[in-house]
Amino acid sequence: MPDIVLVEDNEMNRDMLARRLVRRGFFVRIAADGGTGIRMVEEALPDLVLMDMTLPDIDGLEVTRKLKANARTRDVPILVLTARAMAEDRERAFAAGADDYDVKPVDIDRLLGKMRALLERKAS
After folding, report:
1. 3-state secondary structure at position 27
2. Which intervals hold domain Response regulatory (predicted)?
3. Which helix (H) or strand (E) holds 72?
4. Tens of pLDDT along 10-65?
5. CATH number assigned to the domain with residue range 3-123, chosen from the 4 options 3.40.109.10, 4.10.240.10, 3.90.1150.10, 3.40.50.2300
6. E-only strand ranges, the chain
């Protein structure tokens, strides 16, 4: 069962996505802000992080930078999720160290495909 950390401040988005992932066999840990997300990833070393870009304390791009700069967490794949669908947002996510990027509202089949690809890449 893949272990996922979902860093999302919007309660409705967080609950909806977590329920959908659990039904598909994922173990989901939830962080509602960037600081909690950093601590949770450092402690759990999950298989994958789903990272919202817009968070209340530390934005998702800065959290991504911090996790990728940390030798303990740098190999944990991070998939950035955002309602920002502009090309420059995608570029900023990858520049921060994201391994992939997807837009909201979430298309669960597309997201699962991206998640599986990152999990397979990490396993190999």
Report:
1. strand
2. 3-119
3. none
4. 999 999 999 999 999 999 999 999 999 999 999 999 999 999 999 989 999 999 99
5. 3.40.50.2300
6. 3-7, 27-31, 48-52, 78-82, 100-103
